[in-house]
Amino acid sequence: MTEKISETSKNEESASLDFVRELVTEDVRKGRFGGRVQTRFPPEPNGYLHIGHSKAICLDFDVASEFGGVCNLRFDDTNPVKEEQEFVDAQLEDIRWLGFEPANVYYASDYFEQLYDWAVDLIKQGKAYVDELDADQIREYRGTLTEPGRESPYRNRPVEESLDLFARMRAGEFTDGSKVLRAKIDMASGNINLRDPVMYRIRHAHHQRTGDAWCIYPMYDWAHGQSDSIEGVTHSFCTLEYEDHRPLYDWYLAQIGVDLHPQQIEFARLALTYTLLSKRYLRRLVEEGFVDGWDDPRMPTLAALRRRGVPSKAIRDLCNQIGVSKTNSTVDIALLEYYIRQELNLKANRIMGVLDPLKVVITNYPVGHVEEVEAVNNPEDESAGSRVIPFSGELYIERDDFMEDPPRKYFRLSPGNEVRLRWGYFIKCEEVIKDENGEIVELRCTYDPETKGGYAPDGRKVKGTIHWVSAGQALDAEVRLYDRLFNVEDPTDFPAGGDFTDNLNPDSLQLVTAKVEPSAAELTPGVPVQFERKGYFCLDGKHSSPEHLVFNQTIGLRDSWAKIQAK
Ligand code: ATP
Ligand code: MG
Description:
elongated, 3 domains, CATH 2.40.240.10, Rossmann fold, 27 strands, alpha/beta, single chain, binds magnesium ion, binds adenosine-5'-triphosphate, seven-stranded mixed sheet
């Protein structure tokens, strides 16, 4: 399923390649670009990367490596108003966490001088002009899908005048929005992107890298293809919404007359049910306090998934499985959950954690005595070894592992019934202690000393096995249980007059105080363990300390994907 495409491409089994790899294979075969393949991942540092970006990252890096080429990271830092160094740092960290190392790290802002020179060339060629319409007027003059646009009154101003004004725009003589540089293409074009697109706008804003050196900044379209060409990119992958921009990408490159004219190829974005994948929306969740930062474990950002204990392999597996195509579709979040569980089941050690503790006193156990029992760390991985955990006459078990009046087929603890304590002994419930409100506060049980390790020498069987911790040695831990952040499959679908935040799930975070076995204190933050029978959890890298353990739930044990498959 996650078979390496590299093997197939080497064997030239192009039938099994996706359309992107087919196109690249064909270019290499024909010797286009000298047979070279170079890609780039070009995020704008205006937020944290999310799981949608990982589809682009996997494609960019994997294609380069499959064809023996390089993939660079290029920060598309052309809009200083929304960009920050924090985002630059976070994006690089997230790419590395996902398992990829850029050959080089570049910045579009390093090309500002070259882009400026090329813009001057275009003006000299009569292919760009300084326009003085404001943003609303430009929009109005642009026309619609059914109506051609109108030419700006400044469109045919003398070249000398545009050259002078453009130089003065750069020199800071004009206010934001008072002038723009536009390409002179075709106001009647069927493609609105070709109706004299804006190349530069004035922004008196501090840029995180170029500081105050510039007060005019290039638009995405003017910066992107030229940056690709400067870096030697051969294949420039982007998402489908840029398909209509390709004629402009090509037009710019043709006008400046560079030797390397990269090929733009568009593929479908990743969309996931119950998930918002757009920095614009995610930013609002952060700024308006709906979540506790970009790495709040309920967020779909890579930083959040990492903090929550999601293995990066599960994300790569998802991307490999869904592949790339030309048609937008939405992937069931259950598929991601399936890969997370699959990976954690193999890799995560097991420990005991009781989320809703109920006290158990073993009346025939020597008072004050503590012994050690051996527990296997990971039944799926012998090399993970075993550990010892303390056992005593005072324990906690999960409250819902006891029922006073059990229905048939309830094999856990109930009055007079015997269960196995995982790695421990058989116990039998003899007495139920309640408080004045009738609430069960304690169970009095007896244990069978002959059953250490969980087996009776007389061959007697019990049907239920439950988890537990020894009360005297157990550690308190705050456990954060997570549910989906949104209640609906498509969070952007809300009634007129509403907002996407109306779809937020008010119960997406639940806090409980759990009792965990002592070894929990030594866990590495972000590396999940399975609380036996409860799910996967990891120490929170931000808020956990030895004095106050905080666990994030990575994912429950329930395998909803298996259920979907069974349907
Ligand atoms: P957002 O709307 O979240 O800001 P974006 O496309 O503006 O997304 P960029 O930082 O410009 O974000 O994206 C960098 C690269 O990642 C682009 O090539 C973009 O096409 C790709 N990308 C972004 N979102 C997705 C997605 N959901 N699926 C696949 N690729 C994506
Ligand atoms: Mg963007």
